[in-house]
Amino acid sequence: MSDMNQDAPQVDESNLRKYYKKLLDDSVVEQLEQKLGQPNIFEALGIERVEIRHTNFLAWLLSPKETHGLGDTCLIRFLRELAETLSDVNPAFTVLDVIDWDLSECDVRREWKNIDLLLVFKNSKHVICIENKIDSKEHSKQLAKYAAIVNDHFPHDEWSHSFFYLTPNGDLPSENMRGIYTSISYSIVATLLNGILNSCGVNVKPAVNNYLNDYLNLIKRHIMKTDSLNEQALKIYKQHKELFDFVFENKPDDLQELTESLSNYIENLTHGWQICSTNKGHVRFLPEKLFKFLPKEGRWRNKESFLFEFYFGDMKKISFQTVVSPIDNPNLHSCLNEILSDCLKEIKGYRTPRGEQWLVHYKKEVCSSLIELPRNEHGDISIKDLITQKDFETIFSVVNTITNAMKAKENELISFCKE
């Protein structure tokens, strides 16, 4: 028995019922359920940890001319918070400097040159660059690249610059960027929102007030983990550790769950697609028309020579692709290669196979992020919210094109079974 299994909680049916009743009788659990049941527009949209949505909201909040009706109140409070984080030795700007800036002319740019957030103060000749990270990490020397872009477009002899690295907990940037970027955390945003709600509450539009409250609760609960609900959740876990450990031990992992959900979705389509050799992170299928006659001489578990495949083994994105398996019969391998090349070469997504054994002639990304898996009212993964109808229509078209091309060569393909 492995160490993991030795450490797993040992719970029989009698104990499970006892632990569950204890959970249901806990008043703290009831309070948590009531609070979690309160509507939150950002949670309803499923964007709790979607980086670009947080940056969009910050841009809206900091723009003096935006529809929140707060003018430059949010911007000046934010700048004060930023100034407090800067080094006392030659800071790029101070709280006193902000007083003299013309904030009404601030140009708030989103995704300008791929920079998350850029604040340009034209009259004061100062530019602030903010890179926002929620779950992703700094990569591809992007901080150095963004600093170079700012320096090129806003030369040092005319402009002053400041660079900030925003993360949930104020993580440090890469070592060579620490002298350029100042680390800030989402506590700055929480402080800003608290200040606005406490001092301007009665003057804030009701809808905007709701947005600010919802966003504050969102970042405290999902980003900073400092909300009272997080504390209650920890208290409940400690009180009912045996039950939760048992549940967590038996919870399916996301990779397995997505594999099963996508397989079930494909099987329930009315296109006659049949699930074939599938494993975690790889959902493979064939139209029934092809399944009946394609030779089974491949390397997959069920010996298929060719399959359509959804790949998401790294749990980062979902790709749809066509795959020819290595085959001992070189004539069959060559025939499949020729059929696919001929019928797909004019279709967007076609590619010349890079290998000689496993051949991929077509590949299309159909879901760009698996950070948050959308779920339906039953808690099951919602495939239709992961892969759009438009992408499925493209997939249907590719599958039909290949099916027709192979059906036209049916007799030739069947002949390889006799070799």
Total beta-strand segments: 10
The count of helical stretches stands at 18
**Main beta-sheet strand count, sense and barrel state:** 5 strands, mixed
Our measurement of the CA-to-CA distance between the termini, rounded to an integer number of angstroms, reads 48 Å
Helix content: 40-55%
Given helix and strand content, the structural type is: alpha+beta
Mean pLDDT figure: 85
Describe the structure in brief.
The protein is α+β, with helices and mostly antiparallel strands and 419 residues long. It is 45% helix and 15% strand. The strands form two sheets. It has a five-stranded mixed beta sheet with strand order 1-2-3-4-5, sandwiched between helices.
What report would you give on this structure?
This protein is an alpha+beta fold and 419 residues long. It is 45% helix and 15% strand. The protein contains 18 helices and ten strands. The chain has helices spanning 3-7, 13-24, 27-36, 41-44, 51-62, 73-85, 95-100, 142-153, 187-200, 206-223, 228-239, 241-249, 254-267, 288-291, 330-344, 383-386, 389-408, 410-415; strands spanning 106-112, 115-121, 126-132, 160-167, 181-185, 273-275, 282-287, 306-311, 318-324, 363-367. Strands 1-2-3-4-5 form a five-stranded mixed sheet, sandwiched between helices. A five-stranded antiparallel sheet has the order 6-7-8-9-10. β3, α8 (142-153) and β4 (160-167) form a beta-alpha-beta unit. The longest helix has 20 residues, at 389-408. The radius of gyration is 28 Å and the shape is globular. The relative contact order is 0.08.
